[in-house]
Please model this.
Amino acid sequence: MSKVAVVIPAAGQGTRARRDGQKSKQFEPIGGRSALERVVERFRCNPSVTLIVVAAPADDVNALRGLLPQSGVKVVAGGDSRQGSIRIALSSINAESHDRVLVHDAARPFVDDALINRAIVALDAHEAAVPVTRIADTVIEAGASGLRGETLDRDKLRAVQTPQAFRTSALISAHIAATEAGRDDFTDDGALMAWHGHEVALFDGDPRNTKLTTTQDMDAAKRHFSEKDYLACPDVRLGNGFDVHAFAEGDHVVLGGITIPHERSLSGHSDADVVLHALTDAILGALADGDIGAHFPPSDQRWKGQDSSLFLLDAVARVKARGGFIAHLDATIMCEAPKIGPHRDAMRARIAELCGLPVGRVAVKATTTEKLGFTGRREGIATMATATIRLPLSSEAFQ
Ligand code: MG
Model:
């Protein structure tokens, strides 16, 4: 059986779905994982696919190499155009060992095995094939001031999707020819192949295989995947964490990943972020996977002065590695000062960002201890935290 490679162009900026300051749509988290991660996972699970090449923005190549699975996935820096990115990705594929290639949009995370298999099988009889769907709505040509011309004949029209399927050597030749002809404006490989004189076959696409284009699409995808993730992870686990750091000389404290000016600092081996430490332990508690001191021994010089987000990110990765996700985090900070209220939302936003959670699933609360005990005497700050996580049911769950 011939081997199949997949090219995923993900170097575009996705401005239509981009709200100011937000990531491109393929990188924006949908229930904790981006569309690109979900697309890569879908193709990795197909037994015919043995190589996936992601063309990423040059600035994101290293981050994506860390984020995506290592085996069978290559991340390359893309070009200035979609066509350029695909040409670069194709140059890293050996057309003899991988004689079939699929090209799939990073922003189509709903692709499933049935569609992937239809694309692969289409190449048994064709050099090039693209998935299409019928158009249910009436299609018109819009002019500047409204409807222009006649209604187009719906029966002859099709919407073109991905994954598009090609004989690897034929697609490489067509890309080389387009570049030599000075064309760099193809946004669709089926169209590029047709321009190069190839017959392009059509096969059934899937109306559910939509492309995330607008913010409404993103919101619908978030609903869809969170429902699926919740059904797939019925094993609800609760963990708690507690941490204390003492005050020492200094002019600021770091709490919940936020630096707050204060007349004293917290002492500790790392940045002494008592909130992130308690949250990390709460997640590790829910996983029944040791504690922060076991994974990051204070005796290890590597963690000296370390940003505590590293510890929290490690705990989040452990949840992901078990196939689960964090459903909720809750922290209570105990101190007389500094005042937490003015910084609460900044802490929630930072913790949510680190954990890939909506901010509505992160609570930060504060209390004094009525001048009682070490926190009441202003000797230090304590935090207790709770983490709710959800895991898939596994045989281990019943032990
Ligand atoms: Mg600590």
